[in-house]
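Deliverable D5.2: sample structural annotation.
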Amino acid sequence: MPIFEGLERDDIKRLEGIVNTVSYSKGQKIVSEGDAANAFFVIASGFASVSIELPRGRPRRLASLGPGSTFGEMALIESGTRTANVFADQPVFAYLFSLDGIRDLSRDRPNILTTILSNITKELAQRLRKANEEIRNLE
């Protein structure tokens, strides 16, 4: 999974010790915009959609996520509230990592958080490039 690229086998074993598994039915809301951001998810199977509410309550789909995709990972950078809704487009099985669990692990193994944050930064840069291109295409 891209978010864990570069971690040593021992680090992966430690992450396995703190992971929770969750599942969602088709159509079920996984996270809501405005909720506390205290965990991030890695999709193991299934597909989900990320959306935001536009003025007058109109939803706008931003992305479709599949196996290996992460969401909620911005919470590791800036814990606060969720910035979008995520719905299961079909049954979703995911791994849930609490921010507290990741931070606790990183006290003894700081490279875990450093590596994950580096991978998140790369992903966010790719998303920003894509968003910039989409904005350019609006002209």
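Annotation notes: The first helix runs from residue 9 to 16. The chain has one domain: 2-132.
The annotation will be released with the project's public dataset once the embargo ends.
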